[in-house]
Amino acid sequence: MTDSDLPMDSSIKFVVPIKTVERPLKLSEFAKMELKSIGMMDDKGKIKLKGVSPKMLKRMKLESVDCPVLANEIAFIQCYVCKNFYSRITGKVNCKGEPLSVNT
Ligand code: SF4
Predict the structure, then answer these.
(1) How confident is the model over 50-82, as pLDDT tens digits?
(2) From atom 5 of ligand 1, which residue's Cα is the shortest distance away?
(3) Looking at ligand 1, which atom is closest to the CA of residue 16?
(4) CA of 42 to the centre of ligand 1 (A)
(5) Is residue 38 part of a domain?
(6) Could you tell me which of 28, 43, 89, 97 has the fewest CB atoms within 10 Å of its CB?
């Protein structure tokens, strides 16, 4: 293990590896609402993340995480807008691991 594998902040509870999937996973309704409310999704459901190039976005759509809090595989984009998302470092999500409501 190198230093970069260690969580940088004591508020980080989980370091979750990011996986690549063949087909984009569906976003939950809550995640879509979150994306819309922060201006990252238009009314047609098209995602636009600030500072993320279309090429990068395409790649992000094909990524998922096995969320330890929701105990489910979810789309990385949903994870990215989750309130527990702290940072993404070397293919892993630093997650604060706080309880989430089921409709997150
Ligand atoms: S940031 Fe949210 S969605 Fe991502 S792994 Fe943590 S709890 Fe799950």
Answers:
(1) 788 889 999 999 999 999 999 999 999 999 989
(2) 67
(3) 5
(4) 23
(5) yes
(6) 43
